[in-house]
Amino acid sequence: MAERHAQLSFDGKEYELPIVEPTIGNAGINIAKLRATSGDVTYDPGFANSAGARSTITYIDGAAGVLQHRGYAIEDLAANASFLEIAYLLLRGKLPTQTELDDWADEVRMHTLLNEEMKRFFDAFPKSAHPMAILSSATNAISTFYEEYHDPTDAAAFDESAVRLLAKMPTIAAWAYKKSIGMPYIYPRNDLNYVENFLHMMFAAPTASYEVDPVIAKAVNVLFVLHADHEQNCSTATVRGVGSSQANLFASVGAGIDALWGPLHGGANQRVIEMLQTIVDDPDATAKSVIARAKDPNDPFRLMGFGHRVYKNYDPRARVLRSYADDVLAAVGIKDPLFDIAKELEQAALEDDYFIERKLFPNVDFYSGLIFRALDFPTRMFTVLFAIGRLPGWMSQWKEMTEDPDTRIMRPRQIYVGDINKAYVPIEDR
Ligand code: CMC
User: Fold this and answer.
1) How many CB atoms are located within 10 Å of the residue 428 CB?
2) Known catalytic residues?
3) 8 Å CB contact between 46 and 59
4) Contact present, 332 and 374 (Cβ < 8 Å)
């Protein structure tokens, strides 16, 4: 195909901008040299219309509600893949053979323990500490034990760090929870698989034996797989941005965890449940009154778990979770009034002109919390579960970023609109 260009006409001058061609989806108008040739920059708050990278990891068609990792549909992966399998797919670029997967699982298993000194680190947090704060702090803290792997240009060091982070994240998450309920930390068990081991560390106590329920293990696996990557979302862009300064993988992932915590991103799964609970608790609240609040331009309230920067259709992950939630609730024998409210709220929103015009549909966070809740996870752990799931995505995007010859330190421009050239006024004259 002949090389394509876009023409930009501005202030009486013409600029020819090269096109970065995709395999599928939107092309990119390359404006990298625009400032050098014109003196001006582009303006795009939230980078809603800017591609910061070329990527081979995840493809989304937001209008059609399509999500694929390395070319495989999310629906197929959720139905068939184990979490470590999808982590391998994202990090290594291909589905593993059985031997490769077994070796990979063994490698991860070897690193599930935290350095014993980390216990004191957990002890130092107040009991009320949000587990996302502990998760991000502990991720940074464990970097201090592995400083020999910090060189971002060393591919072998990346592999070592990635396996360690994958192995230790469930241990950190479970210990953050044990800390919050004042219970002893439970050590990993290497005879269990990745998800079973996490459930064991979360829910076992030293005083009794704990059998992992296969229904719960399967559900957590599906949830982790559904969260594994989502191209250039806020936390992934953060991981790439921090990594672009050549900060180490642990520090970059720690920053990603912080970005995920926000209620407009991964923190939404906690907020959805809190929102549904207020409807149950308040006799005057109905699905309609909540929708009315969400539509009110003078009320900052938003319908949590609704809307998405990229999907202008039903989020395919939410579609999987909606039908899966019915199965899980039935399997664990729970009838949750919040689930009924959620379905009522969804229907009311999908029939409302405000939501129809703006193409606002349920996103992954709308139903994930209801399943986590049915599986007995406390609400404040929901975003931590999202983080464990998203970890392979963050790390594969970090790796792709460090290997891309186009990568430069992330350093956006601005358009200055403040005062200039003011004379300093001594403090006594102000
Ligand atoms: N409730 C009510 N109105 C909404 C909502 C919502 N949940 N989401 C978007 N809108 C409105 C918004 O007010 C705007 O209206 P108008 O054009 O009249 O100003 C319009 O829809 C477009 O919204 P936007 O804020 O420009 O969209 P965005 O792409 O900047 O934001 C979002 C995307 C996900 C932050 C936003 O939809 C939102 O705040 N949703 C609620 C929080 C949430 O569920 N977050 C989870 C996102 S998915 C998983 C993840 O990334 O973690």
Assistant:
1) 5
2) 308, 365
3) no
4) yes
Enumerate residues 6+ apart whose C-beta is below 8 A from 27: 4, 19, 20, 21
Q: Whose CA is nearest to atom 50 of ligand 1?
A: 265
Closest Cα to atom 10 of ligand 1: 307
Q: Cα–Cα distance between 328 and 226 in angstroms, integer?
A: 15
Q: Evaluate whether 224 touches 199 at the Cβ level (below 8 Å).
A: no
- With the C-alpha atoms ordered 322, 224, 249, 67, is the resulting torsion angle positive or negative? negative
Cα gap 231→229, rounded to integer Å: 6
| 18 bridge partner residues | 5
Output the CA–CA distances (angstroms, integers) from residue 212 to 14, 35, 127, 324, in the order listed: 66, 58, 26, 20
Q: How far is CA 46 from CA 50, 52, 142, 149, 252, in A?
A: 9, 12, 31, 33, 20
Query: How many C-beta neighbours within 10 Å does residue 4 have?
Result: 12
Q: What is the pLDDT of residues 281-314, one digit of tens each?
A: 998 998 899 999 999 999 999 999 999 999 999 9
- Rounded Cα distance, 136 and 391, in Å: 12
Identify which of 238, 302, 309, 361 to mutate to test ligand 1's pocket (most ligand atoms within 8 A of the CB): 302
Are the C-beta atoms of residues 199 and 216 closer than 8 Å to each other?
Answer: yes
| Tokens linked to 314 | 């039903």
Q: Is the CB of residue 305 below 6 angstroms from any atom belonging to ligand 1?
A: yes
- Ligand 1 pocket, 294 CB below 6 A? yes
Collapsing DSSP states into helix, strand and coil, what is residue 15? strand
pLDDT digits (tens, 9 = 90+) for 161-188: 999 999 999 999 999 999 999 999 999 9
Q: State whether the beta carbon of 303 lies less than 6 angstroms from ligand 1.
A: yes
- The residues facing 306 across adjacent strands are 362
Measured between its terminal Cα atoms, the distance across the chain in Å is 65
Answer yes or no: are the C-beta atoms of 209 and 187 closer than 8 Å. Answer: no
- In ligand 1, the atom with minimum distance to the C-alpha of 306 is 7
Digit-coded pLDDT (tens) for 114-135: 999 999 999 999 999 999 999 9
